[in-house]
Design goal:
single chain; alpha/beta; 6-stranded parallel β-sheet; 4-stranded parallel β-sheet; 12 strands; globular
Length: 293
Amino acid sequence: MKIGLVDVDGHRFPNLALMKISSWHKGNGDKVEWAGSLEHYDKVYMAKVFTFTNDDLQAYQTEKFIKGGTGYDLASKLPEDIERCYPDYELYGIKDTAYGYLTRGCPRQCPFCIVGQKEGTNSYKVVDLPQFWSEQRYIKLLDPNIIACPDWENLLGQLADSGAWVDFTQGIDIRLMTDEKAAAINKVKYSMLHFAWDNPADMGTLEKLKEYRSVWKGSQRNRSVYVLTNFDSTHEEDLYRVYALRELGYDPYIMIYDKIHAPKETRYLQRWVNNKRIFRTIKYFKDYDHTRG
């Protein structure tokens, strides 16, 4: 068969589902390529992660059209035999980085997050590391809450044993941090740790960030904290979190909920904080000239 693939969100970050679909079809002798409107395909798979991404309205010639991903439907899932395929990194020209999940699900039921609805409210192991890693130098770990999983020690051990540089791309749940978990994380050769402080009223998160601030390897630049804005917080509360995190030795990173409808002030805040050259040069937001950012 001739298979066409469409990454509706674009190619800035690889779509893991499409890489697995490509791997499965190539393993069954099918020809796989990015879909074009002038070609005819037996199947076209269209994947979309984000609901705010405009749909691809291009006409494709195909016998069967399959749409999937959280941008279309929270209930859609890959068939088990495709889900367990090793990703086809060549699809995106990826040479030395592995992408994948060791766990799925999260016990937090945050109202702004779809993980609980899509994957369940328990964190559970889904694969071992070799399922998506094969000696690549870098690993982009996509797990929503790895230290909530009962198998956290074994899985963090697998990451440590790999010797690869690991980017914990999602917010590690600092509220669940213990000395044992912190020690296991520090055995990993990580390039970046991400935490999150979503609710400004959650002082427990602040206290945990404060408690473990001196534990992590490296510098402030490789321990980032996501700061959710435009969701039940004021501009003053957003600024408070930014300044508090910087004082604690963490690097804040602004995430905007519903960016299309966010106030200009919040978008300027994101531009100031997330452009680290500007953020490290201009200490206070009031001194930031957004017209030059």
